[in-house]
Every structure is written in structure tokens, then in C-alpha cells.
């Protein structure tokens, strides 16, 4: 049974990830040179929030719906994200939520490209329908970790999003191995690895491994909506390798704001930790 994101679309983790994804893509768009967006675990690209599965968990109500309820005073990166969500819901009520590929499609310019990996045939077919045959998008029905063999893309400028469902017991190891293999082929790409905080000790071990192995400047961003509960996801993070300079300040302001707007109890916090390589 594969992971089904329609139960979780629009939750706090999606909000966190997509605010930062938009900020990264905006930073790439600040320069005219074309880029390639690579998504290792693309999903279907578009999710309904007015279906039984979404209502059953109610996760979007404590995520995107909570944020939209009172956006006053939000920093620029959060406002930018909310404007994109409103564009997909022009009639007002919140019915649709975009996946990462659709966000990248909406922000891509005419000469930018998307490489999207989705291993499940039915979901890959849904993704093709969502993107409406966009010639800029290339959908690969394959294990997303295999895409490292195709790096670097011809543009030599890319954002690689690694966003697995963390169903596999060895998913953290797989993420780390993919990152190391990809950096050997494409050391100057921008990599964004999303990860959950469920088993805290496991997550911390992986972060220590990454910090010891990386030879590129990086930033580790985290968001917690409340006090830890072992086995439940109350927080998540995004490790960004080679972050664009223009990304840094807006990203920090955004996650600090989200920690206030999305908090479930007094244990909520955000952290922004730079990892600089010593020459």
C-alpha cells in the first residue's frame, strides 16, 4: 500500500515546505539564466480538500485553512504562498491544494524545465493530467533516487527537491546516500531535503551524519507546531544545500511567522541553523 497524500495535503508540513519551495524558486527566478526543477517524489501534483479523505484527518484545517483565516501581518514569503493558493481557488472556498510539481510549474518561466519522478503508475498518470501536457515538464515513472544518474541537467542550474513519504525503514539513509551521490555529479546544485520529526533520535542521527559529510554551505530549517509526541509528526525540517543568498532572510522571517500562526501549544518553535564549511 503506497502512501496517499490526499489524506495530508495542506497540513502544516505542506505549508512549511511550500512556503520555502516558493522562496527558493523566486530566488532562482531573480537571475535570467534558465533552471531545471527536479522532484524525486512528485506525487499527483494537485489535491482536493473537499473530499472525504481530507475531511477524515482534518489536517488541512490546522494548516493552510488556519493560515488563510487571518493572514494579517504575514511576511512577504508567506503572502506570496497564500496568493498562489488563492489563484487555484478563484471562487473563494478552499477546495484545491497544489503539490510541489504544480507550484514549480506555476513559477517556471518559458525556458525553465521540470524533471518529475513518480514511481506509482496511477499517480504518474494523474500528474500528467494535472500538468496538461506542459512541454516544459518531463515525467519519469521510476524510483526518484535513480535521477541522480542524470545530473547535472543541461541548464547546469537546478533545484532538486527530495521529499519522500518516509514509509521505508531506511528512508533517512536513502536520502543521505542520494544526496552524496548527486553532489559528486553536481556539486553546485541547490538541494532541498524535507524530513519529518517523528522518531526524534533517528532524525538527529541523520542530521549529524549530514553535517559531518557535507562539503557545501547549507541551512537547516525546522518547524514544530507543539511539544514532541514520539511516533507522531509534530515537526519537520528542510535541509537546503547551496542555498541562494536571496532565499535566506525571507525564509527565516517566514518560518518564524509560521511557528506563531500554526502553533498547537506552547511547544511550537522554528529554528534556522546555518552550516558553513570551513576552508
Kindly describe this structure.
This protein has a single domain (5-275), classed as Rossmann fold. The chain contains 9 helices and 10 strands. It has helices at 12-29, 52-57, 64-69, 76-88, 100-107, 121-131, 171-185, 200-213, 245-261, and strands at 36-39, 46-48, 96-98, 113-117, 137-140, 158-162, 190-197, 218-224, 235-241, 269-275. 39% of the residues lie in helices and 19% in strands. The chain has an 8-stranded mixed sheet with strand order 5-4-1-6-7-9-8-10, with helices on both faces. A two-stranded antiparallel ribbon has the order 2-3. It has 279 residues and is of the alpha/beta class.
Low-pLDDT runs of 5+ residues are none
- Specify the CATH architecture: 3-Layer(aba) Sandwich
Helix content: 25-40%
Shape: globular
Report the count of strand segments. 10
Question: What is the structural class?
Answer: alpha/beta
Report the end-to-end length measured between terminal Cα atoms.
46 Å
CATH superfamily grouping = Vaccinia Virus protein VP39
The CATH topology comes to Rossmann fold
Mean pLDDT: 95
Strand content: 15-25%
At the first level of CATH, the class is Alpha Beta
Count of folded domains: 1
What is the helix/strand order?
Answer: HEEHHHEHEHEEHEHEEHE
With helices defined by DSSP (H or I, 4 residues minimum), what is the helix count?
Answer: 9
Amino acid at each position: 500500500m503506497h502512501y496517499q497524500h490526499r489524506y495530508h495535503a495542506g497540513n502544516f508540513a505542506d505549508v512549511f515546505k511550500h512556503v520555502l519551495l516558493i522562496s527558493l524558486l523566486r530566488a532562482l527566478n531573480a537571475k535570467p539564466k534558465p533552471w531545471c526543477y527536479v522532484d524525486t517524489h512528485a506525487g499527483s501534483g494537485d489535491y482536493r480538500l473537499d473530499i472525504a479523505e481530507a475531511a477524515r484527518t482534518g489536517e488541512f484545517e490546522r494548516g493552510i485553512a488556519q493560515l488563510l483565516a487571518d493572514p494579517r501581518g504575514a511576511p512577504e514569503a508567506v503572502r506570496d504562498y497564500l496568493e498562489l493558493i488563492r489563484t487555484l481557488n478563484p471562487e473563494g472556498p478552499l477546495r484545491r491544494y497544489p503539490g510541489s510539481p504544480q507550484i514549480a510549474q506555476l513559477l517556471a518561466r518559458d525556458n525553465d524545465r521540470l524533471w518529475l519522478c513518480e514511481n506509482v503508475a496511477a499517480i504518474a498518470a494523474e500528474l500528467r493530467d494535472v500538468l496538461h501536457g506542459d512541454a516544459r515538464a518531463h515525467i519519469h515513472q521510476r524510483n526518484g533516487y535513480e535521477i541522480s544518474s542524470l545530473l547535472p541537467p543541461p541548464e547546469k542550474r537546478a533545484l532538486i527537491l527530495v521529499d519522500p513519504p518516509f514509509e521505508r525503514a531506511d528512508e533517512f539513509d536513502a536520502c543521505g546516500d542520494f544526496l552524496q551521490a548527486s553532489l559528486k555529479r553536481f556539486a553546485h546544485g541547490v538541494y532541498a531535503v524535507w524530513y519529518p520529526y517523528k522518531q526524534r533520535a533517528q532524525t538527529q542521527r541523520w542530521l549529524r551524519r549530514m553535517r559531518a559529510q557535507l562539503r557545501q554551505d547549507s541551512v537547516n530549517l525546522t518547524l514544530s507546531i507543539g511539544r514532541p509526541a514520539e511516533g507522531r509528526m509534530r515537526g519537520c525540517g528542510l535541509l537546503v544545500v547551496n542555498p541562494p543568498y536571496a532565499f535566506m532572510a525571507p525564509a527565516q522571517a517566514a518560518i518564524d511567522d509560521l511557528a506563531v500562526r500554526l502553533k498547537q501549544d506552547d511547544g511550537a518553535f522554528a529554528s534556522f541553523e546555518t552550516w558553513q564549511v570551513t576552508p
